[in-house]
Amino acid sequence: MSYKIAVASSDGKVVNQHFGKATQFLIFEMEENTFKFLELLKTTPFCSNAEHEDDKLSGAVEVLVGCRAVVVSQIGSGAAEALRNKGIEPLDVHNFIEDALKKILKYYAKIDKNIN
């Protein structure tokens, strides 16, 4: 089973962007024990001083529909809830992207095994 993961990163190496302040998301396809980069999704930050407009938050969430999870360095509770409402799991991670994706592969492999 393959799925997509969005990663908030300014440099393509480290998970280092807050969800609401992210300028881009790297989209990866995850499958069994591997992952591959699919695309770079440029975004407009919508959070300023812990405040945001609901329609901008909704727009940010909508562009990520189809992803199983979003990996960020930080996310507010309102944004996390908005993602969960669309079936997207928010994951706070402080790591190199490659290391984070390897851990996520193992995490979802356990979950998927228990479901089937």
Describe it for me?
It is a single chain. The chain has 116 residues and is α/β, with parallel strands linked by helices. The protein has one domain (2-115): Dinitrogenase iron-molybdenum cofactor biosynthesis domain (Nucleotidyltransferase, domain 5). Helices cover 32% and strands 29% of the residues. It contains three helices and five strands; from the N terminus they run βββαβαβα. The protein has helices at 54-62, 77-85, 97-115; strands at 2-8, 24-31, 34-42, 67-72, 89-92. Strand 4 (67-72), helix 2 and strand 5 form a beta-alpha-beta unit. The mean pLDDT is 91.
Outline the secondary-structure elements.
Layout: E1 2-8, E2 24-31, E3 34-42, H1 54-62, E4 67-72, H2 77-85, E5 89-92, H3 97-115
Quick recap:
This protein is an alpha/beta fold and 116 residues long.
Characteristics:
116 residues; alpha/beta; Nucleotidyltransferase, domain 5; 5-stranded mixed sheet; 3 helices; 29% strand; globular
Average pLDDT rating: 91
As a whole number of angstroms, the C-alpha radius of gyration is: 14 Å
Put simply, the count of helices is: 3
Distance between the termini: 12 Å
Order of helices and strands: EEEHEHEH
Q: Looking at the chains present, what oligomeric state does this protein adopt?
A: single chain
Coarse shape: globular
Low-confidence stretches: none
What's the architecture in CATH terms? 2-Layer Sandwich
Q: Remind me, CATH topology?
A: Nucleotidyltransferase, domain 5
How many beta strands in the DSSP annotation? 5
Q: At the first level of CATH, what is the class?
A: Alpha Beta
Order of strands across the widest beta sheet?
3-2-1-4-5
